[in-house]
Amino acid sequence: MPYFSEADARSIIRETYGQVQSDGAAVAEALYAPEELARLPRGAVELALGVAHPVRHAGLKPGQVVLDLGCGGGIDTLLAAMAVGPQGKAIGLDMTPKMLERAQKHTALMGLTNVELREGMMEEIPLSDASVDVIISNGVLNLSTRKSRALAEMIRVLRPGGRVSISDLVLTETLPEPVLKSPAALAG
Fold first, then answer.
1. For the Methyltransferase domain, which residue ranges apply (predicted)?
2. Dist. CA 132–CA 152, nearest whole Å
């Protein structure tokens, strides 16, 4: 039984992630190679909030279109943009306007012209059918209140033969009720 309505859950998540400052450098340093981090703006590194490195496992190739669900400050979007090169495109999707502003700043600092940032929900991806080659997501799917819908949307926007590289949290047992009722736990 959900303890939060879908609207309340989205509001809590949007507010929580909109207030994140910069405490993710240790996360980034644990997940990404030093040479990758050296190519990124410090702000993107400090906003790393993921749980793994989906770009490393995505098998990106030059010229591909990649969608980063829940792009946050842009660390994986930027790495994907570099991997697909100027003939490809990296699309970052996030529900949090403040995170998108930060990702835009980081994109501009790098001078990347193959990055597109969009505000939206993973359950309602604002892209055409069969429009992306690869989807990456890093610690975000667990935040969805409608995971089946989010997965259906991923399938819808993937081109035939497309791939998905998801890094996320997985539970092996039910959480205690106080945790389930906690807005802080809901937002990660």
1. 61-181
2. 14
What domain range includes position 128?
Answer: 6-52+61-169
Q: What are the Cα distances from residue 65, in Å, to 23, 77, 145? A: 30, 11, 27
Domain assignment present for 182: no
- The two structure tokens encoding residue 97: 């306007």
Q: Which residues of the chain have pLDDT under 50?
A: none
Report d(CA 36, CA 13) in Å as an integer: 28
The pLDDT, as a whole number, for residue 171 is: 81
Residue 179 domain flag? no
Quickly list H helices, 21-172.
25-31, 34-38, 42-46, 54-57, 75-84, 97-110, 147-157
Q: Which residue has the tokens 């309602």?
A: 124
Nearest to 28 by CA among 74, 89, 69: 74
Number of alpha helices (DSSP H) and beta strands (DSSP E) in the chain: 10, 5
What's residue 165's pLDDT? 97
CA-based diameter of the chain, in Å?
49
Residue 146 lies in a domain: yes
